C-alpha cells in the first residue's frame, strides 16, 4: 500500500529478510509514525512514577540519555546491516556476528518474550480501562461498568475477547507494516491527546491550589536504599525499546538511507511526549503517583475536575494501545515463525501458515490476559533483562565483535560503555526489586515495562 508499490507491492512480504532491503515506496512520515508508535507503548504510563523516584531533573536527563543511546544503538545496527552477509534484519546481523544458532536464535527468543509479555500487558490494561480491575487492595471500575453497571457484556472476559476479535484481529492480519501508517498516525495523536488532557488537569489544579508541586531531586528519606533509584533506569530504557521494528520499517522506505532521519525525528518527538507526561503526571498526583499512572485516573484527580475528563484520559490511552498492538504483534509473529519454521518460504507468502500462526498467537495472548490479571511484578525483571539486551547489549556486542572490521575505536568505546551501563544498572535494579520482594515491599517503579 506504500506509494509507488504497484500491484505486486500489495502482496510484497512484510519480512525484511525477503524484501532485499530495496525499499517498498513508504514515506519518511509513515516511518516516523510507525517508529513513534513502536516507541510509545505502555511505558509512557510508568514515566511519572520514575520521575517520582528520581525527581524531575534527573528523570529528564535520563530520558535524554536513553534517547541518545537508542539513536547510537540503532545507528550501529543500520551500519552493520549494510555489510551483513545474511538477511538485512536484526536477526540477520546478530547471526552474522555470532552465528545463526547462537546469535539470531537468542535474539528471536528475547524479542518473542518481550513482545508477548508487552502485548499481554496491553490486553490487561484495555480490560482494566473498559471493565475495571480488582486485586492487591486497589479496585476500580471500568468505563463501561461506570456507564452501564455490571453486565455480562461489560465483564472483563467478554470485553477483551470482543476487542481482540473485532478490532485487533483485522489489524494484525495486514501483511505490510506500511499498511499501518494511518493507524500509527492516529495512535500518536491519541498519545498527544492523553498528554494534553493530563496537562490540562494539572494546570487546572495549579490554579485551584490543589496541585502537588513536584520535587526537582530525589528524596532519599523516602527510599529504603539509595540503590532504589536504579529501579527507574530500566523503565526509561524499556520505554525506548523499539529496535525489533527498525528493519521491517526500513525495508519499506523508498530510500532506506532515510531511516536515520526517521529514527531521530521519532526519538525527539517521543522524548518530548515522555517528558511532558512525566512532569504533568507527577505534578498532578505527587507522591501518590502509582507505577501505572493510569490507575490514578480512576478517581478524582483534582477538586472540581469532572470524572468525564479522567475517563477521556483513560480511553485515549486504551485506544492508543489498541493501535500500537498490531506493530508489536507483527514482530512477535515474525520471531516465533523464525524459531518454529526456520528455512520455510516467507511467512507473508504462505497464507495458511500466516493465518494459523496469527490465530494461535492471539488465542494465547487472550488466555494469558485472562489468566493473569496483573503481571507488573513479572515485568520488574523482564524489563531489566530481555528489553535491555535488545536495546543496548546486543547492538553493543555486534560492534565489539566487529566481524567486518568496520568499527572505529570510538565506536568500540561507546559499545563497551553501553554494555557496562546496561549490565550495572539492570543488575542493581534487579537486586533492589528482589530485596523489596523479600521485605514485602513494592516500591520500585519498574512495574510497567514497555
UniProtKB/TrEMBL annotation:
GO cellular component: organelle membrane
Limits of the Amino acid transporter transmembrane domain: 25-430
Gene Ontology process terms (BP): amino acid transport
Keywords: Amino-acid transport, Membrane, Transmembrane, Transmembrane helix, Transport
Protein name stated in the entry: Amino acid transporter transmembrane domain-containing protein
Membrane topology, from the record: Multi-pass membrane protein
Compartment list: Membrane
Gene: LOC123445006
Domain of life assignment: Eukaryota
Transport recorded as keyword: yes
Taxonomic path: Eukaryota, Viridiplantae, Streptophyta, Embryophyta, Tracheophyta
Residue ranges crossing the lipid bilayer per the database entry: 49-69, 104-125, 158-174, 186-207, 227-246, 267-286, 315-332, 353-372, 378-401, 413-435
Amino acid at each position: 500500500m506504500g506509494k509507488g508499490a504497484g500491484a505486486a507491492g500489495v502482496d510484497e512480504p512484510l519480512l525484511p529478510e525477503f524484501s532485499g532491503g530495496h525499499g517498498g515506496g513508504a514515506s519518511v512520515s509513515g516511518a516516523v509514525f510507525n517508529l513513534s508508535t513502536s516507541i510509545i507503548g505502555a511505558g509512557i504510563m510508568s514515566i511519572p512514577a520514575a520521575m517520582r523516584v528520581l525527581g524531575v531533573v534527573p528523570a529528564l536527563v535520563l530520558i535524554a540519555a536513553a534517547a541518545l543511546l537508542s539513536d547510537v544503538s540503532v545507528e550501529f545496527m543500520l551500519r552493520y546491516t549494510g555489510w551483513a552477509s545474511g538477511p538485512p534484519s536484526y536477526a540477520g546481523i546478530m547471526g552474522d556476528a555470532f552465528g545463526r544458532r547462537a546469535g539470531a536464535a537468542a535474539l528471536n527468543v528475547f524479542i518473542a518474550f518481550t513482545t508477548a509479555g508487552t502485548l499481554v500487558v496491553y490486553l490487561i490494561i484495555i480490560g482494566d480501562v473498559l471493565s475495571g480491575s480488582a486485586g492487591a487492595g486497589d479496585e476500580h471500575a471500568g468505563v463501561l461498568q461506570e456507564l452501564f453497571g455490571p453486565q455480562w457484556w461489560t465483564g472483563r472476559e467478554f470485553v477483551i475477547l470482543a476487542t481482540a476479535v473485532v478490532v485487533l484481529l483485522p489489524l494484525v492480519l495486514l501483511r505490510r507494516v506500511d499498511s499501518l501508517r494511518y493507524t500509527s498516525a492516529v495512535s500518536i495523536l491519541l498519545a498527544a491527546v492523553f498528554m494534553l488532557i493530563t496537562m490540562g488537569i494539572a494546570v487546572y489544579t495549579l490554579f485551584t491550589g490543589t496541585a502537588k508541586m513536584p520535587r526537582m531531586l530525589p528524596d532519599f528519606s523516602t527510599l529504603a536504599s539509595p540503590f532504589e533509584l536504579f529501579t527507574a533506569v530500566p523503565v526509561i530504557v524499556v520505554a525506548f525499546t523499539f529496535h525489533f521494528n527498525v528493519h521491517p520499517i526500513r525495508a519499506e522506505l523508498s530510500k532506506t538511507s532515510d531511516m536515520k532521519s526517521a529514527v531521530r525525528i521519532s526519538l525527539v518527538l517521543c522524548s518530548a511526549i515522555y517528558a511532558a507526561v512525566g512532569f504533568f503526571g507527577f505534578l498532578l498526583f505527587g507522591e501518590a503517583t502509582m507505577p501505572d499512572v493510569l490507575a490514578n485516573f480512576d478517581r478524582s484527580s483534582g477538586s472540581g475536575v469532572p470524572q468525564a475528563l479522567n475517563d477521556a484520559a483513560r480511553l485515549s490511552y486504551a485506544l492508543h494501545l489498541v493501535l500500537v498492538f498490531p506493530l508489536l504483534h507483527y514482530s512477535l509473529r515474525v520471531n516465533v515463525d523464525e524459531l518454529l519454521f526456520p528455512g520455510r518460504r516467507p511467512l507473508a507468502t504462505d497464507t495458511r501458515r500466516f493465518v494459523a500462526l496469527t490465530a494461535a498467537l492471539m488465542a494465547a495472548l487472550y488466555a494469558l490476559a485472562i489468566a493473569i490479571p496483573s503481571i507488573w511484578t513479572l515485568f520488574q525483571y523482564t524489563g531489566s533483562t530481555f528489553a535491555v539486551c535488545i536495546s543496548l547489549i546486543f547492538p553493543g556486542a555486534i560492534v565489539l565483535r566487529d566481524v567486518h572490521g568496520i568499527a572505529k575505536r570510538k565506536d568500540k568505546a561507546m559499545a563497551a560503555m553501553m554494555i557496562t551501563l546496561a549490565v550495572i544498572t539492570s543488575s542493581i535494579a534487579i537486586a533492589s526489586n528482589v530485596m523489596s520482594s523479600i521485605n514485602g515491599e513494592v516500591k520500585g517503579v519498574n512495574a510497567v515495562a514497555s
